[in-house]
Write a structure and sequence with these properties.
mainly alpha
């Protein structure tokens, strides 16, 4: 890939694994169970700010869980 032409094989593998994980995470985020859960929680809010805060906290909770699992590995 032209973007990583000056990198060694190890860092290219790392970037590839991270990119693959990101794509899988996006796929997981748009699955029916997540969309139903977030939609239900957010639709109960009266304002866009409150809905955004709930959505952001939902995402932050997922990020912290992944960070803890990553550090453990």
């Amino acid at each position: 890939m032209w973007l990583f032409a000056d990198t060694d094989t190890g860092s290219l593998a790392t970037v590839s694994v991270l990119a693959y994980g990101f794509v899988l995470g996006l796929k997981h985020a748009v699955e029916a169970d997540h969309l139903a859960a977030v939609s239900t929680i957010v639709s109960e809010r009266k304002s866009l700010l409150s809905s955004s805060l709930v959505g952001g906290l939902w995402g932050l909770g997922h990020t912290i869980s992944l960070l803890i699992a990553g550090v453990a590995v």
